[in-house]
Amino acid sequence: MAENVNVWVSSGGHASPFYVFYSDSQGKNELVNFTINPNNTYTFRRLNSATSHPFYISDSGVGENHSSLISITGDGSPQRGITGSQQFTLSFNRTIDAIELLYYCSSHSNMQLAFEISNVSVLADQSTNPVVFEENHIIRLYNTSQNKHLFSSNSNEIDILTSEGWIDEGAIYSKPSEGSVQDVFRFYVASENRHFYTASEQERDLIINNQQLIDSGWQFEGAVFSAFKADARPDDAVAIYRYLNQSNGNHIYSTSTYEQELLNNNSEWLNEGIAWYGESI
């Protein structure tokens, strides 16, 4: 069964293996012969909030954006790494046959080494593993180069985007099969190359009638899928939370309590509450 593994990374040094990894924040339990299992996710933090030798990971080379085989969410970047209280989470997106996963210091290119990886040919029970597409599924896709997400239930759109490098993060919930439902509306913000979703007709109309937003590139794409009405949802309905990035205006929509915890603890993200409810898969 997949699990999230917390890893604390030492302050680093120029001698191989460059960093020491621990399973606790006090640095008492060293992860000897640390091996990455692609069935799990890994959250990396700096031990004692170390600010030296910024730490990061990539499967494409030092300082390079990672490929679609993996996802990295959270703080840092391939060029800046993480220091202090920053952290990021590594996950694997699909079955893989071979991969070289490097960890490195973003300030010193000589400080790089490949992780040992187990079970490389089998990736099971991974929450981000794409589910076989069904027309009633809502799929979340991720663009690593632009750090943007998109929801879609349109198989043609999903095929086009994944062929262009978007990562299929899998079906996160279903359209309601019965009961009282409402539409979820989508806007395309052309000037920022991103999408915005709302299940509120009032919010939809406010945007449509805001000439300043229309002039700045907001385009109404209509109703894209359905959701439960909040006052008529079943007990096991999936809540989709909406977060606003207060630095750049981007939004992220999440059904993952783990992801929400990370966002809630990041001052850059504002929790705007439940945007709508879907049906559990």
Secondary structure layout:
Layout: E1 4-9, E2 21-22, E3 35-36, E4 41-46, E5 55-58, E6 70-74, E7 87-92, E8 102-105, E9 108-114, E10 116-117, E11 137-143, E12 148-152, H1 155-163, E13 167-174, E14 181-189, E15 194-198, H2 201-208, H3 211-215, E16 218-228, E17 238-245, E18 251-254, H4 257-264, E19 269-278
Parallel strand pairs: 1-4, 3-10
Antiparallel strand pairs: 1-2, 4-7, 5-8, 6-7, 8-9, 11-12, 11-13, 14-15, 14-16, 17-18, 17-19
CATH class of the largest domain: Mainly Beta
Q: What general form does the structure show?
A: elongated
User: Gap between N and C termini, in Å?
Assistant: 18 Å
- Spatial strand order of the main sheet: 2-1-4-7-6
Question: What's the short story on this structure?
Answer:
With about 280 residues, the protein is mainly β.
Provide an overview of this structure:
- It is a single chain.
- With 281 residues, the chain is mostly beta strands.
- The protein folds into 2 domains: 4-117, Sandwich (Immunoglobulin-like); 173-278, no CATH class.
- It is 11% helix and 40% strand.
- It contains 4 helices and 19 strands.
- The chain has helices spanning 155-163, 201-208, 211-215, 257-264; strands at residues 4-9, 21-22, 35-36, 41-46, 55-58, 70-74, 87-92, 102-105, 108-114, 116-117, 137-143, 148-152, 167-174, 181-189, 194-198, 218-228, 238-245, 251-254, 269-278.
- A 5-stranded mixed sheet has the order 2-1-4-7-6, with no helix packed on it. A 3-stranded antiparallel sheet has the order 5-8-9, with no helix packed on it.
- A hairpin with a 4-residue loop joins strand 11 and strand 12.
- The longest helix has 9 residues, at 155-163.
- It starts with a strand and ends with a strand.
- The model is unreliable at 120-133 (pLDDT under 50).
